Give the backbone structure.
Amino acid sequence: METTKYLLSEKEMPTSWYNILPDLPVPLPPPLHPGTGQPLGPADLAPLFPMALIMQEVSSEPFIEIPEEVQSIYHLWRPSPLYRARRLEKALDTPAKIYYKYEGVSPAGSHKPNTAVAQAYYNKKEGVKRLATETGAGQWGSALAMACMFFGLECKVYMVKVSYNQKPYRRILMETWGAKVVPSPSTDTNAGKTILNQDPDSPGSLGIAISEAVEDAAGREDTKYSLGSVLNHVLLHQTVIGLETKKQMEMAGDYPDIVVGCIGGGSNFAGLFLPYAGDKIKQGKKIRIIAVEPEACPTVTKGPYCYDFGDTVGLTPLLKMHTLGHTFVPPSIHAGGLRYHGMAPIVSHLGNLGIIEAVAVHQNAAFKAGIQFARNEGIIAAPEPTHAIKVVIDEAVRCKNEGVSRTILFNLSGHGHFDLTSYDDYLTGKLEDYEYPEALVKKALADLPKVA
Amino acid sequence: METTKYLLSEKEMPTSWYNILPDLPVPLPPPLHPGTGQPLGPADLAPLFPMALIMQEVSSEPFIEIPEEVQSIYHLWRPSPLYRARRLEKALDTPAKIYYKYEGVSPAGSHKPNTAVAQAYYNKKEGVKRLATETGAGQWGSALAMACMFFGLECKVYMVKVSYNQKPYRRILMETWGAKVVPSPSTDTNAGKTILNQDPDSPGSLGIAISEAVEDAAGREDTKYSLGSVLNHVLLHQTVIGLETKKQMEMAGDYPDIVVGCIGGGSNFAGLFLPYAGDKIKQGKKIRIIAVEPEACPTVTKGPYCYDFGDTVGLTPLLKMHTLGHTFVPPSIHAGGLRYHGMAPIVSHLGNLGIIEAVAVHQNAAFKAGIQFARNEGIIAAPEPTHAIKVVIDEAVRCKNEGVSRTILFNLSGHGHFDLTSYDDYLTGKLEDYEYPEALVKKALADLPKVA
């Protein structure tokens, strides 16, 4: 049995990110000011983000150079490997060729540092001393903690209290890299204090944690806010994944018929598929791009495409996106990174244009696929990308049934070393599947902001 | 700041292991039968090991071919990267050049699969259906679980009960790969039942777990026993680390003045240094090879070099090695992989010949170095290799003080993703240093077997 791993040298790593905005056949609807309903200007975002990132958010340049300092840190784990999953192919007895890009090789264990390092760099360059952010299970918080360490920035992470208490490993990871982590709601912000006054035992939520981080950043001259997904500049930084993959697929002498990834806010999958979406738009490539989301939080498959807030409390600009309503709280599936009410505007727009498609899967089916993958390829995937693996296996089996060989590519966005209790729950039959919470979504959609 | 990573292609991976036995200036003292005191023959070991491994244990061939099936699985993560630690060098303001070989890229997170895959292969080839082994914190058990999965072997792991209860992550990892894991002492063996009869709440020990695994293997026709360190064939399989490193150091245009690694049973460090020890013996290379052990279990720095049992209960052959006495139970330091009373015979012999040297360090100093490494290089090291990092930093600082540039190479044998609570203990000041337990060692040394 041949194992095939496609590696690029540091010199072959892309030196620019790919910006899909100028290649879109229809322009992306702009973010709106929640008060006026008017498109936002750069000044509106200046209290929260450095100007370089604000300009990337609306750039019309097709390629944006990756600063040398960022490239240098990327080199600690990039270029990341592309694998041909020959053992899985054999186990499935499929004529399909399955490739996966593995982002779990970063020290934080996921794709998140690709943007964390870039964001820390631009903030540092504009004199920012400190970044504030929120984190749920801790994937994003740990990536930003590491990035801030490299640039000598302070990092304050508001970590959802229930995760802070139940998942100490990622908190310790952040602290090992020097970040300050507090359970949210905290007494460090007015938002946190207000919640604690109402309910001293509040378990917290991502929405509350965002409110705390935004208040922290808005209230301090030396501090900006940092977000790990959804926004255009975040997806831009992640395109290093897809640009590397295209070179590696060339080494393999192959080109994908199907590209698969999981979506929560959209950044890991967009990082892989955006360069391929560009080929589809500009060169008319026949390629299926399949986004996989949880049945418990089926933003693209069930949510309307309209303007909504990015956070639960309603502090952010309005983004046009697929949404289940900003007050919707998704069920507690193990794939914490997929529990988000909205979806990146770029991903939503491409879905609306028919350039990408979406499917939803249950977590038991996802973990079953994750175990099958681990028992053939060795690598333990994080709960999020097991959703992608489920659809990859389905497509490979379909190839067998149809007697057709197709090339399937997916993003293995991170390892599951900090998520093993979820595998234990699956193996011991304790994992619950949540049906689409239609009534809750209906209620949340009634809270959608009115836009003229 | 330049990051430098030296990568080999799959084609450049060594296709043979290096066997130092024929290059030793003085032959290695043989293992002895505990009953007769006579050197062991192959037949004595046949109930526990397949013949291919028994022959490797005494081979006089300088290179032994790595079977293609083993190479193919190695390719899932090998060749592993060699890094130049430029950020750490800069932080230390040292003229020293620091390189590290990173074995944490394997799916099990350490160097252990290098031998686990080879052992599973040879057992499979000789018709064995099932392997039994012991594990403490779980590094070795998880590597063997993964290896057995690749070859369709059953895997039974006796895991020290206190670890089984306190460290569920590595147990789940083994189960995800399909192994059967029981807390030891168990009711599955007579050894386990005897202990449980005496003390139903026994927390277990590595010694007890070895007894259970050996009894399991000896009592079943379809089952052999597998050991993760100490023996010659285990060290042989690990030399793929050092052989790759030599090629990568050539890419860097460099050769080490100092090679550093941590030692518990000796296998990770021997894997790196044996090819360099060969250079030292055959070419007279001036190179310091420094083995680092814990002050709490200073086998080479404090233990006599004599014949002793490999396990606590006294079931194994007698090995000539540095030992603190087979009944010595080391204090509960976090580096579980370094808590062993003995030392690989090859490592002990080379120490006795003056080819390698040893130093002992405290765990607080080791974790301090590990944090310094993580905050510069990003990677969170397992507790075991933080011991090596401590000495690397000391040597780099000495270079600065002496105004001399030396090339320092060390083995970063695994990541610390499953050991983060130990970092937490260090960061919160809860980590205890244990002085050398002289009285306990003296007592254990009184139990040494008598050899004519």
Q: What stands out?
A: The first helix of chain B runs from residue 42 to 45. The CA atoms of residues 174 and 388 of chain B lie 27 Å apart.
